[in-house]
From TrEMBL:
Keyword RNA-binding tagged: no
Organism name: Listeria weihenstephanensis
Gene Ontology BP annotations: carbohydrate metabolic process
Coiled-coil boundaries: none
Record-given protein name: Transaldolase
Family annotation (PROSITE patterns): TRANSALDOLASE_1 (PS01054)
One Pfam family linked to the record: TAL_FSA
InterPro entries per record: Aldolase_TIM, TAL/FSA, Transaldolase_AS
Keywords: Schiff base
Length: 217
């Protein structure tokens, strides 16, 4: 499980649970951390991640050159950084370029809305594709079908590209994504908290605690 946030307080709180593989950010999440640069936020997040945990940072640019150069800047900062590249025509060029030059660089193809994008990203050698579940649902698409078809295609092709579901607004979307065949998910911290909460469990635990107190008397 990855955390989809650039907020250091949220990351710190969630790291205590030990199930976090890494943190994913995007320009919108970074912009929410007002008054701070991407470099500053990244440095602070990396300072609390372990050697094994990954930080995903998205490269931006209107042209192939801009996108490629931004990716190089991002990747130069720390070996634990994986690069997010948008899955459009310019992005596919940059993914190919990066993988040819540095096969060890970990690339996540982001802003995925179709099996077609995932297929091209896998051929470009990407390590992950990130289907945008809630944004698909908002457009009347069927994210679980897209993910299941992608998982089947990757298996058929024998490619190692993993599916990292992203863009979640409720917990059902998360379980549906995993059951459809996603290997990973990236979740906003508030939704992880919701996943831990269950009224029936809370009632049972409360009763156990009351009985335990009575039993100890
Ligand atoms: O990591 C980016 C992806 O999660 C987008 O999420 O909530 O902006 O649709 P959202």
């Amino acid at each position: 499980m990855f955390l989809d946030t650039a907020n250091i307080t949220e990351i710190e709180a969630m790291l205590a649970f030990g199930w976090i593989t890494g943190v994913t950010t995007n320009p919108t999440l970074l912009a929410k951390e007002k008054g701070r640069s991407r470099a500053d936020i990244s440095r602070e997040i990396l300072s609390i991640l372990s050697e094994e945990q990954r930080l995903f940072i998205q490269a931006t640019g209107e042209t192939q050159t801009e996108l490629y150069e931004d990716a190089q800047i991002i990747l130069s900062k720390d070996a634990r950084i994986a690069i997010k590249i948008p899955a459009d025509e310019i992005g596919f060029r940059v993914m190919t370029q990066l993988k040819q030059e540095r096969p060890d660089v970990e690339i996540l193809a982001t802003a995925i809305f179709s099996v077609e994008q995932s297929y091209l990203a896998a051929l470009a050698g990407c390590d992950w594709v990130a289907p945008y579940v809630n944004r698909m649902a908002n457009q009347g698409l069927q994210p679980a079908h897209v993910i299941a078809d992608t998982a089947q295609l990757f298996k058929q092709l024998g490619v190692p590209t993993k599916i990292l579901g992203a863009s979640f607004k409720n917990t059902a979307q998360i379980t549906e994504t995993l059951l459809a065949g996603a290997t990973d998910v990236t979740i906003p911290a508030d939704l992880v908290t919701v996943m831990m909460q269950n009224k029936l469990a809370a009632d049972s635990i409360h009763a156990f605690n009351l009985d335990a107190k009575g039993g100890r008397r």
